[in-house]
Every structure is written in structure tokens, then in C-alpha cells.
Predict the structure.
Amino acid sequence: MAAMFNSRKEAMAWLKATKERKRKLEEESQIILEKIHNDRLNKTAYV
Amino acid sequence: MYKLNLEKINQDSPYNLEYLKNEDSMVFVSDNDVEFRVYFDREYQFKSVEAYYFGISNYQNKKTPRDPKVAKTIVSILTNFLEENESCVLYMCETGDKKQSLRARLFSYWFSLWGNDEQYTLLRNSIIDEEGIENHIGLIVRNDNPLYYEIVNEFALTVKFFREKPDDE
């Protein structure tokens, strides 16, 4: 039966890497959402 | 690469979703003027099928008063993803503010409201990292996925590794 890892050590390394990846995606999201937020504010200002 | 039917999602979803330019994620704005981004990120380590992490971000992590329309929108995206792809979805709740348990319970509740038990399985578990932080992870899979048992077993085996004592290595 397949498992994602072969040892607890590998599992811990994966968890650390996954959390770091998630943190970077969240940072990326905030940049994207800030732009969308500002575009919406600017649109509202000119209506 | 995964597929999504945005037209179909928007038929079911209370909030209108739009793709970002490169179509790798979607955004919507709630009635409380909070911008949300929803994305799927491939987990290459998962072996049984193509697996994707599901993520939700809201601008400046603004608190959103109870908004069932956000929940319904999220579940509409997830169910469409599982209809369009023979994949499974994984998620891991944010731990930065120590509210991961609350998030995990809330997400299960959302899915119980709009995700059909006869069609989908949601499994959740918690794993402790090296810093002693509890991380809530989950798996969502269609019950009629041809590799259902392999997927569920792989998830269970994965969690099992975190239950082992460090001395066992």
C-alpha cells in the first residue's frame, strides 16, 4: 500500500516544507488581494 | 493541471467568482466587502492520484461575520473541482493565530451543510509538528472515485507516520 513517506523523519520534513509553501501562497494572495482591493476602491471613487 | 467549470460554479455559488488573469486561482468579494482568493496547489508527494491543496485567503485576514454565502461559495468550488477532476483535495488549516481547531471544525460544518455525504467523504485529523504545534489536515474525495480505497488508505498511512515516536526511526 502506498504511503506518502517512508519514515517519520520524511513526514516531518514534508510537513515543514508544506507549511512554508502555504505561507508563501498566503503572501502571494495578500499581494493579489491588495491590488484587487485598491482597484475596487479606485472604481468606487470615480463613480 | 486541474479543470474547473466556472460557469457551473457561478450557477450554484451565491457570490460571483472570477478567474485571475493566469487562471490559476479565483477571486470573489463578499457582501461585507472582503476580497477572497481561492486556489488549488498540487501536492506531488501524494501517490494514489493527483492531489491538490485547497487554500482560501481573505484580504488582510479580515474577520468576516457569519456569512453562509461564503461557506456555500467555498463548497460549490470544492464540489465542482471533484466533479471535474478524478483527484482528491487536501487542506491544512492556518496555525499562525492558533485558531486551527476552530477553522477545522468550521470547515467540516460548512461541508456538512452543503456537501452531500452520499457523494463525498471528508476525513480530518491532526498532526503535531516538530515545534509541538497541532496542525489540522483533511482529505475530501468523491465516494465513487475508482481509487477511493487507495486514496483513503494513503491519507491514513500518512497520518500514522506522525503518530510514531521519534525513537522509532
The interface with chain A takes residues 20, 25, 27, 29, 35-37, 39, 41, 43, 45-48, 53, 55, 57-60, 92, 94-95, 127, 129-130, 135, 150, 153-154, 157-158, 160-162, 164, 166, 168-169 of chain B (CB under 8 Å).
